[in-house]
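Narrative progress, year one. The postdoctoral researcher (J.K.) led the effort to move from monomer predictions toward full complexes, under supervision of the PI. The following entry was the first complex the group processed end to end, covering 460 residues in total.
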Amino acid sequence: MTDADQELRVSKIVNGTVIDHIAAGQALNVLAILDIDGSGGEEVSVGMNVPSDRLGRKDIVKVEGRELSPAEVDVLSLIAPAATINIVRDYDVVEKSRVTRPEVVTGILSCPNTNCISTAGEPVESRFEVLDDAVRCGYCDELLREDLAAHIATD
Amino acid sequence: MRHDHLISARQLSRGDVETVLDRAAEFDAGERVARDDDLLGLCFFEPSTRTKMSFDTAMKRLGGDTVDMGTVESSSVKKGESLADTVRVVAGYADALVLRHPSEGAAKLASEFVDVPVINAGDGAGQHPTQTLLDLYTIRENAGLDDITVGIMGDLKYGRTVHSLAEALTEFDVRQHFISPESLRLPRNVRYDLHEAGADVREHTDLAGILPELDVLYVTRIQRERFPDENEYREVAGEYRIDADTLDAAREDLTVMHPLPRVDEIAPDVDETDHATYFEQAHNGVPVRMALLDLMLSGDGGDGR
Ligand SMILES: [Zn+2]
């Protein structure tokens, strides 16, 4: 079976975003990063551990009625570096892109260092420099490697 | 100097360090300048009498003056004013700011809100780059900064002076040995940076094995409050204490340093030996800070190297 066939297992969407080629096991983290839990009424389909030519196994997320912003796509790359983003309008893929790792992510992750000035109510957004295999707080230098999804800023 | 601010030892290139140390040596040799019009803002959000006095002295020796925000208890910070607001106000009075703050990243944040140079005088467990510069100055005066072996011993986990120094030493041809209890070894972000910098680094739990190779032994204090129980602290602390007898096994020209204050990790009988360099190290803070202030206030930032 091809990837295209597999996609059919997860219901087609009319308008919205298909995030494909997510590393297996990361789908729920992707939803967390995008702050999607279904409570906003959006229709969300998730496929986990589906076979993939490229990745062996992959996860796939489809969000009806929502197009991802470039900033959201950037941060996705931290946990799903191989992901592809398909923007769907009226059943057609109108835009297809790969995620790219940004040099800096701003306002998305919050620093796990409880003594970091960026978490102290100052008038600044969190800022992390993206390294090859980690991200580093632009204020206190704290390194974050695993489990980035647990540090998504919730405000 | 390439930089408008001094936030982290990580931003200091070998060239930057040499520029500051050379200038410090000129001040040490009695050079005078007249910075009559310059005012340095002292923003100490936590008490650090010595560091503050050292900056105050350095600025006055340059012919300038200081304005002091005062203690946190007596200032608007107590009323909940943000750091960003406080430094913006002080930067309106002063030509440069020195900042000491209990939170990591405070100096970086301050530098984003003001147009005058910011010098980090210690932010939480983060950076303390002027301490690093005076440490480097002391090492250079006593052992040189190339082809030397430096041992750094004590609390390597929480000791910010250690982190800054280790990072700065990667700019020079220095073999670094870290000696600490397992529970107080270097944090992983520092090990990561040292690794990235290609540093020649080894870690030990015991000083004896490495002591005879060292040109410099940098001792830091192991703090009681880092340990959940007193006995555990006693057990560990004793192993990282040196006295004159310990140093019998060391090279004759070993330089022993300490950022001070010490408690009992260096026995008083070491003071009488030629190894003891920690008081000289503390005094070096003034010429080094004079050099730094003079370079930054001269507006050399951004000129490139
Ligand atoms: Zn931080």
